[in-house]
Structures are given as structure tokens and as C-alpha cells.
Design a protein that fits this description.
Strand content: 15-25%
Number of strands: 15
Strand order of the largest sheet: 9-8-7-6-10
Structural class: alpha+beta
Helix content: 40-55%
Oligomer: single chain
Shape: elongated
Largest sheet: 5 strands, antiparallel
Number of domains: 5
Radius of gyration: 47 Å
Number of helices: 18
Length: 567
């Protein structure tokens, strides 16, 4: 169930990526004549054609050429040609860029000063490289200072000199000339209708083709595997999982971009779409791989009786998935020319704030990880933790749950558990058999020696008793009895087994005492009570037997003996 929910979540994430790619403002800029990039700083005058930045120059030129406004398009050229000649050069440049220039418009600088990649020529900016029969041609922009009107970026003279020759080499039929005019002329948000149709129906068609191919390959592979292994109940394997299908879509889009000659803006659009799909597919594949690694590691830990570590693995996997998603977002932002430095800085500040706010939570998580990996306690251990005694029911990342002897469930934060003294009762290798027996003072020396010797033999003959630890000694003269100490360690599986063994030993000891005619002393106290003869009786010469007499009463015998009347 968790796997299905995870796949649904990742699927929705892929569609969010795709929607974000569709909303990138590439086409709306191209739909306006002289489309401008974000405004330059207030100190620099704003150019009406958007030529203040390299990206604004290229986008504005392509937009004007696509609308057929060659007069406006020629304003983006640094040429001495005028009128029809300049417009003809602008048309050839637009064809060359549409057919040969790589779709990397998002990588163009959107700053008035340009990318400043060439320290020797800071007033030049590279748009891309075009392959020609006589070698590669660099398409460059150069910045010209117009005095009070501020600097603008134009296609360089060196680039324009090579354009006519490359144009003569191009012999490709544009896809717009093949399609019906209404699919090309009608536009929505600046995008031709046929490209909307391809996006709406083409991508799902490719996806369903991969689904059909997966079923075909899975059925064929399943039959082969069942025939080889000779098991008819084996299911068909999944040859093309969902993320692999998405990756196939991205590859198909890239392949169609090479085979079908589209305009530069169209290629830029589909390049962005394929990049987003590929990034989403790769993140999904890596997420599935991390899930498989987690399942494998969890099975290994369960076999090693470290099931509590599965919660740490689950947290680590979630952190890895979050980092994968974040890396994918950063890659997409970089693809669309957005500088992620500010976002990373903000994320760092936000992370510090979250860490400070969740200090106790992080302390408990770290404490839980240390408890799990140090194996201080395990699920099922009986322990004494502070004022609580019970069995460990669950070890989580935030807290440890203990089932007490009253059958209540106590949750203790792991941060406290990590700093408290733990007494693991179930980790005992031996159990302490220790008793103090009080014998009556009427016990003779012969009886005492016989009892001690018989108890020692009893303990030494028992296979559950550690022989080296056996001790049965006359310990002391106490106020009420002769104290005999019994000391030994017993080998037992658990506490219940120890109680069973101890019960048998105590029964045997009682039998030894009865055979030796030795009785266990009761707690007793002796009182001396004196009765005083009245003075009148002394004067009258009463007999001496009326003089004060001492009476001794053994309190221990009150339960069975009648106490003489005291006058």
C-alpha cells in the first residue's frame, strides 16, 4: 500500500514538473513584437525593442521574424545595410537560427552587462555555435553604446558576414509549410495550434505506446521464464516501469526534434519539456532504487535482530528522496536560466531557523539513532529505566515505548533515554539466587553442620546452578535467629524460568530442614515483667512467697501459650 501511495505521489510530482515547464514564459515573450526581458536597473534607459540584454535581443529578434515583421527584425542587426537589404539579411539570419542554432535560449544572460564570460572582450556574448561546410560559426552579440540612450546588444558584424553562406547550404522544408494553414496561423498564448495538439495528444499517445510495449514485453518474458523455470504461477515481470516510460517519452521527443525541423522557439519549448520529463523520470528511478535498498537493508537488519534500525533507514530514505527532488528542482531552474544561488541561500537560512525551532525533536532523533545503532536496548528487552520497569514495545525515532508490569504504555523521549542509566534485566546471563534463612537458637551445632552440608550438596548437584558460585554459610548471630546465607547463580532462559528453578530449590531446602529436625525461627522478643508486693503486706509479716516476682514472657509463644495472670 505504501509503495502504491509513493508511486502516486511521484506521478503527481512529475505532472507538476510538466506543468511548470509549460508555464515557463518562453512563448509569451515571443508573441509580442519587440518582446522584452525583465527590466534593466533603473539607472539604464529602457530600450523599446528589449535589446538591453542578450536574451532580450535574441527573443525579440525571433519574435519579430516569426511574425514576418522584418523591418523590426533588422533593428537587431549591427549592419550598415538599409531597407530591403537589411530585411533580407534579417530573414536569412532567422532561417539559419531556426534550423541550425542549438536550443539554449534559457542559458543566455538576462543582465545588461551580459554573461562576462570573455574577460578580454566583455562587450561580446556568445549565443551558440552553428556548423557550416567551412567550419563552425559562432553566433555572437556585441554591445554598442548609444550615448544618452544607453548601450544595446546587437548581432555582431562578424556573425552577419557568415550568414548568407550558411543560408545557401540550408535545404530543408519547414514543417509549417506542410501543415494546414489554420493549424499554423491560429495561436493560443503565442503558440501555434498544431503544437498545442501535439502537446495534448502526442505525449499521451507516446506514453500509451510505452504501456502497450511494456505489456507485450512483460507477457513474452513471463512466458519464457515460466517455461524455463517450469513454474506456472510465476507472474509477468515489469520490463518498463513507469519512470522508464517517462524517460522513453523524453528520448522520443529528443529524437523527433532531430528528425522534424522545427523553429528555434519550438525546439526550445520541446527541449524544455523533454528536460523536465527526463529529470522527473530520473528522480523517480532513483527513488525506486533507494526503496529497494531500504527493503534489502531492512531484511538484513531483521535477521540480525536490529529491527529498530528500520525507522532510521526510513528517515534516511525520505531525506534522500527530498534531496533528489530538491536537486531536480535546482536542475530545472538552471535549465530555464534561473540562478538558484538566492534560493540556496534562503534555504540555508530557513534550515538554520527550522533546526533551532526543532532542537528538541532533533535531539530525540539523534538520541534514537544512537540507541538503535549502539544496540543499547532492543524490542522485547525487559529493563528498568528510572522509575519505570517493563518491556520495550517499540523503538521509534522520537521516543521509546515501554510496556510496564501494570500493562500501561509509557513513551519516553529518546533524548532522555540516551542520558539515563539503563538496567536491562533481560540481558542477564545468570540469575542471582540469594536467601537468608534464620534458624532457631535451639538448633544444635551438629544440626547446623548437617544442614549446611546437605544444602551445599543440593546446590552442587543441580545442573542449573553455577558450581563456582555456590555458598552456604553460617553467617551471624542475629537478635532472633541463627542466620544462614545461601548464595549461588542459576542458569535460566528468562525470569519465569528462574522463578521455576528457585521454587524447586526452596522446596528441596525445606525438605532438608525437616529431615534434620531443624525449625525456622520466628521473629521474637522477650519481655521481663515484675509485680511489686504492697508495703502493708510486708509490715503484716506475709510469707516470702508474696514478695516481688519476675515473670518472663516470650512474645513469640503468645500465639500458642497462655500467659499467666499478672498481679
Amino acid at each position: 500500500m505504501r509503495t502504491e501511495l509513493r508511486e502516486r505521489l511521484i506521478t503527481r510530482l512529475c505532472w507538476i514538473y510538466l506543468f511548470a515547464a509549460l508555464c515557463i514564459p518562453v512563448w509569451p515573450q515571443a508573441s509580442l513584437p519587440g518582446a522584452t526581458s525583465p527590466p534593466a536597473p533603473a539607472a539604464a534607459p529602457k530600450d523599446p525593442f528589449g535589446r538591453s540584454t542578450p536574451r532580450g535581443t535574441v527573443i525579440g529578434f525571433l519574435a519579430a521574424a516569426r511574425k514576418g515583421d522584418l523591418e523590426v527584425a533588422s533593428a537587431y542587426l549591427n549592419t550598415s545595410l538599409k531597407g530591403k537589404a537589411a530585411e533580407d539579411l534579417a530573414m536569412k539570419l532567422s532561417v539559419v537560427l531556426d534550423q541550425r542554432l542549438p536550443a539554449r535560449l534559457n542559458a543566455l544572460s538576462d543582465k545588461p552587462e551580459g554573461s562576462l564570460r570573455d574577460a578580454v572582450h566583455p562587450d561580446r556574448d556568445l549565443v551558440g555555435t552553428i556548423a557550416g561546410s567551412n567550419g563552425d560559426v559562432e553566433v555572437e552579440l556585441e554591445r554598442l553604446d548609444r550615448g544618452k540612450n544607453g548601450p544595446i546588444w546587437l548581432f555582431s558584424r562578424k556573425t552577419l558576414e557568415s550568414i548568407p553562406e550558411i543560408y545557401d547550404e540550408i535545404d530543408v522544408v519547414d514543417v509549417d509549410a506542410i501543415l494546414p494553414s489554420f493549424l499554423v496561423a491560429n495561436k493560443i498564448a503565442g503558440i501555434p495550434l498544431f503544437e498545442w495538439l501535439v502537446a495534448i495528444f502526442g505525449l499521451p499517445l507516446i506514453y500509451f505506446s510505452t504501456v502497450f510495449l511494456n505489456r507485450l514485453l512483460s507477457s513474452l518474458t513471463g512466458r519464457i521464464r515460466r517455461s524455463v523455470i517450469r513454474k506456472t504461477d510465476l507472474p509477468d515481470p515489469v520490463i518498463l516501469p513507469r519512470p522508464v516510460r517517462l524517460l522513453c517519452i523524453a528520448i522520443a521527443v529528443r529524437w523527433l526534434m532531430v528528425k522534424v525541423h522545427l523553429s528555434l522557439l519550438a525546439r526550445q519549448f520541446w527541449s524544455s519539456i523533454s528536460t523536465v520529463i527526463a529529470v522527473a523520470a530520473v528522480i523517480w528511478i532513483l527513488s525506486l532504487i533507494s526503496g529497494r535498498i531500504e527493503e534489502y537493508a531492512t531484511r538484513r537488519l531483521v535477521r540480525r535482530k536490529m529491527a529498530g534500525a528500520s525507522s532510521v533507514l526510513r528517515l534516511a530514505r525520505r531525506v534522500v528522496n527530498a534531496l533528489l527532488v530538491f536537486a531536480g528542482i535546482i536542475a530545472i531552474l538552471y535549465k530555464f536560466g534561473v540562478n538558484p544561488t538566492a534560493a540556496l541561500a534562503g534555504l540555508g537560512v530557513g534550515g538554520i531557523a527550522v533546526a533551532l525551532a526543532a532542537q528538541k525533536t532533533l535531539e530525540n532523533v539523534i538520541g534514537g539513532a544512537s540507541i538503535i545503532f549502539d544496540q543499547v536496548i532492543r524490542v522485547g528487552d525487559t529493563l528498568k529505566l528510572g522509575e519505570f520497569t517493563g518491556t520495550v514495545d517499540e523503538i521509534g525515532l522520537r521516543s521509546t515505548r515501554i510496556r510496564t508490569t501494570d500493562r500501561t504504555l509509557v513513551s519516553i523521549p529518546n533524548g532522555q533515554v540516551a542520558t539515563m542509566s539503563l538496567e536491562t534485566l533481560s540481558a542477564r546471563d545468570k540469575f542471582w539466587f540469594h536467601h537468608l534463612i534464620g534458624l532457631r537458637y535451639e538448633t544444635t551445632l551438629t544440626q547446623m553442620k548437617s544442614v549446611l552440608e546437605s544444602i551445599r550438596e543440593l546446590l552442587l548437584e543441580n545442573s542449573s546452578v553455577e558450581r563456582d558460585s555456590v555458598r552456604a554459610r553460617f553467617l551471624a548471630f542475629s537478635a532472633n535467629a541463627l542466620d544462614v546465607e545461601l548464595f549461588a547463580y542459576l542458569y535460566a532462559r528468562d525470569w519465569n524460568h528462574f522463578l521455576e528453578l528457585q521454587e524447586g530449590l526452596l522446596f528441596s531446602i525445606i525438605d532438608k530442614l525437616e529431615k534434620s529436625n531443624v525449625q525456622i525461627a520466628f521473629p521474637s522478643r522477650t519481655l521481663y515483667v515484675a509485680s511489686v508486693t504492697p508495703q502493708a503486706d510486708v509490715i503484716a509479716g506475709r510469707p516470702d512467697d508474696r514478695r516481688p516476682q519476675d515473670r518472663t514472657i516470650n512474645v513469640n509463644q503468645i500465639h500458642s501459650e497462655s500467659v499467666p495472670e499478672i498481679h
